[in-house]
Amino acid sequence: MPTETETPAARKPGKRDVRLWIAGTSVSLFGDAALWIALGVWMKDLTGSNGMAGLAFAAYVVPRLGAPFLGLVVDRFRRRPLIALLNFVLAGWVCLAFLVHDEQQAWLLYLVLFGIGLGVGMHNAAGSALLTNLVHADDLGRTNALLRTVQEAGMLAAPAIGSLLYVSFGPRLVAGVEVATFLICAFSVLAVRVDEPAPKPPEGTLPQELLAGMRHLARTPRLRAVSIAMGGGLLGFGFIETVIYAIADQGLHRSAAFVGVLTVAKGIGSVLGGLAGMRVLKRVGPGREGLLTVCGLSMMALGCAIVVLPGIVAALAGVFVMGLGTPGAVVGLYTSVQRNSPAQLQGRVASVASMLATAPQVLSVATGAALIATVDYRILLVVMVALIGTSACYLALRVRGFDHADEARPATAGVAEPAAAAD
Q: 229, 361, 366: which is closest to 297 by C-alpha?
């Protein structure tokens, strides 16, 4: 039996429960990827606009701007039942897509994506917190990398399957698949056995509670640095959601459905990137997850540079390299949040970190949609290289400073020292 002072995160992980969690969330993400590709192509076919298609992704990520509220909700309930309920609700929400028949109802596709983005944002924050109850702190990085690898493997198949189902049977069947994946995720999560402590009661006013996660992130140098770097990197990378349609259309003279092929190439890179991330984390050790984000952002910048070159080979190689870097960047961010945040703030800090990373992405998606009609997509790719590369360099310098501070600290210090003070 665990002692009174032992936290659930310190117990030996239950492999069955971790596998159920990974399987359920991966299946759900598979459905999200298939639906997102299908709805983006559907919007392009309904409106004939690359910009409107690119804004489909903006509708999906905009809800994460409500991160303080979403995180507070996550921290006020037990995470496992909350995640299951969210997936049941989302299964019903997707059915709104069945009402779309022509361009006049196209706005419903944005509404569907907005609702899914809202639910998935809460799912991600709650899932990040729940994982700290399932896995020992030192194993969080490798477990996150494994989870990301399995998810990317599913996403590798999702665009091709989503595009095939869209072309062969229409978008409504893709929406039906998404409904099924949400239900599978809900039942998988309900089957997870976890000793989850009751949420702590509020300790301050509502504004104080809403801003608690942001204050913790701002006062913790490691979290602040990796969040700033990811925000800057995604400020550049967000252009890809619109640019990828121009690459297929203007650069390769293919239909919008060819975006699915490019996404498959990116997915192959992401699977390999997730596997590589596990090896990198094993080599650098716990507490240095920021290095993985540096490597990931660097690869994403390199991929954007390759896509500037003409031809289908360069396009496929470029998106492959982008995919190679994406898992590491994301895993480094969320593992840093999990390792450097107290249990009662896990949901809020994860939501704020997600908001600080994705808010710039929303801005760049909207900007890309506005510029794509008048600015050559290759110019936008050069801007992406500059923004992502600068963010990687910034974080590399910060991580080096943290490492030097760790080396200078006495060996007996820091065992019970809070993460913010340690830096």
A: 229
Tokens of 344: 């009662």
Cα–Cα distance measured from residue 2 to residue 152, given in angstroms and rounded to the nearest whole number: 35
State pLDDT tens for residues 79-105: 888 889 989 999 899 888 888 877 777
Q: What is the separation, in whole angstroms, between the first and last Cα of the chain?
A: 35
Compute and round to an integer the Cα radius of gyration of the chain: 21
DSSP secondary structure of 140-193? HHHHHHHHHHHHHHHHHHHHHHHHHHHHHH-HHHHHHHHHHHHHHHHHHHHT--
User: Per this entry, what is the length of the chain?
Assistant: 423
> For residues 423 and 275, what is the distance between their CA atoms, to the nearest angstrom?
29
Listed residue (168, 141, 170) closest to 338, CA to CA? 141
Q: Which domains does the chain show, CATH number per domain? A: 9-192+206-422 (1.20.1250.20)
Of 68, 50, 3, whose CA–CA distance to 355 is shortest? Answer: 68
Instruction: In whole angstroms, give the CA distance from residue 403 to residue 222.
Output: 11
Q: Is the pTM of this model over 0.85?
A: no
Summarize pLDDT for 186-230 with one digit per residue, the tens: 898 888 887 777 777 767 677 777 788 888 888 888 888 888 898
